[in-house]
Amino acid sequence: MTKKYTIRIRRYDPQTGKNWYDIHNIYAERRMTVLDALNQINEHERAGISYRSSCRMSICGSCGTIVNGKSVLMCNTFLKDLEDPVTIEPLRNFAIVKDLVVDTDAAMEKLRDALPYTTFSITKSRCESVQTPKQLEKIKQTSQCIKCMLCVSACPIYGLDYNFMGPAAAAIAYRYNKDSRDHVGEKRLDSLTGRNGVWKCNFVGECSNVCPKNVDPAGAIQKMKVMGVLHCIKSALKPKLKSKSKSKK
Ligand code: SF4
Ligand code: FES
Fold first, then answer.
1. Looking at per-residue confidence, does 129 or 156 come out higher?
2. How confident is the model at residue 241 (pLDDT cuts 50, 70, 90)?
3. Closest ligand 2 atom, residue 54 Cα
4. Which of 31, 146, 167, 196 supports an S-S bond with 217, CB 3.0-4.6 Å?
5. Mutate to test the pocket of ligand 1, among 59, 176, 215, 216 (most ligand atoms within 8 A of CB)
6. DSSP code of 249?
7. pLDDT higher than threshold 80 for residue 120
């Protein structure tokens, strides 16, 4: 059985600088997603709407938009679950490139500050880094992040201050700091506890509400704050402890 939906799509033409809403009526089956609807509109009506997508299964993280006011992945949002008319707009907190395509480069760049890698050393006798199920459990939730940037789009602090590292970078930093194979934790904490780091978060929690992978970036930021406090105390005490041990010698 099909149902009629009105789809409103925010358009932006970078050449003229014009913004407007396109309105299309479509008949959709129960299983049709917002992404399917856009594909249908582009294919059948030659609408020429620009948007990103790839995997169609919530893995690549490329199809994020605002649908009826909420940051979502279009490929896992079904029309049957939405109020009609359905309004599709580009993600907030990013510059619009064209129609629904936004420029996420600056936010992606911040992921580098989270030092998203482990540094275990490979030797002749040991070329793999083993992790127990218990150790894996600690990072499982935050490892699910697909870098879709929905959390950054939903973050009011990031909207006011683009220098803030943002929830995605914080979640990734937490994931690597908790990794049993990691050896750069201290360096990572130096970067995350700087003036644009985790302290700017006011715990609004909207990032966790919109995360399609239940990563809970808001929770990760709060845990990073505790790690940050301990790291700052340790860093402050370090020179004193050093000088004490020197004088004993
Ligand atoms: S934390 Fe969630 S919302 Fe944010 S980038 Fe990762 S998967 Fe997307
Ligand atoms: S198309 Fe890959 S996450 Fe939606």
1. 156
2. low
3. 1
4. 167
5. 215
6. -
7. no
What are 123-142's pLDDT values in tens digits? 666 677 788 999 999 999 99
Residues within a 6 A CB radius of ligand 2: 53-56, 58-63, 73, 75
Q: Whose CA is nearest to atom 5 of ligand 1?
A: 147
Is the Cβ atom of 72 under 6 angstroms away from ligand 1?
A: no
Contact 183, 150 (CB under 8 A): no
Q: Give the pTM.
A: 0.90
- Structure confidence at residue 249 (pLDDT): 57
Which tens digit of pLDDT belongs to each residue from 177-195?
Answer: 999 988 888 888 887 888 8
DSSP state string for 117-183: ---PPP-SS--S----HHHHHHHHHHHT-----HHHHH-HHHHH-TTS--HHHHHHHHHHHT-TT--
Q: Is the distance from the beta carbon of residue 201 to the nearest atom of ligand 1 less than 6 Å? A: no
Q: Which ligand 2 atom lies nearest to the CA of residue 74?
A: 4
Distance 206 CA to ligand 1 centre (A): 11
Domains assigned to the chain:
3-102 (3.10.20.30), 105-238 (1.10.1060.10)
